[in-house]
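Researcher: I'm preparing a figure for a lab meeting and need a structural model of a single chain. I don't have an experimental structure, so a prediction will have to do for now. The sequence is pasted below. Please return the structure as tokens so I can convert it later.
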Amino acid sequence: MTSVSRQFIDLPAGTIHFASCGSGPPVLLLHQTPRSWDEFRDVLPLLGQHFTAIAMDTLGFGDSSKPLPVRDSIEGWAEVAMSLADALGLERLAVVGHHTGAAIAIELAAAYPQRIAGAVLSAPPWVDAERRARHSRPAPIDNVPRQADGSHLSALWRIRAPWYPAGDIELLERFVIDAVKAGPRAAEG
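Model: Understood. Here is the structure written out token by token.
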């Protein structure tokens, strides 16, 4: 199995953390909010057997720096992702996005069609106003205000547990860690 290396790179918008492995055609993996590269931790070495697989932490999530206000949008995150591709010398690449990452992948394909070789979208979010209204919830699933006694941590755990395989404590714990790192921004997904 291909080993994963983790790195940081300074870009004009901030410091980006990413994990990568393998060699071959480049594939950029884009996580959902509030996750991080860790969402792709288990698949990264598998992709690395045939591709240069790169999983970045979106600006403001994981171990990447907090965004400047101008970058805090799907368009801004796509611009930062392309800046990472530029810094890594990737002229053409495929993108894989899950939830929020799928929206970023769509924006990358629309804004940089000559650079994007292909896009794989997993569970893209509703992006038009009509569908968002039809499928809206009273509050985002991860909208759990921080509490001085730490009770928000168990609340996040309880809210997310039904979405994870029963008994897979490690996977759920990885989500909660990412949500805690995101702070109040966890609910943006």
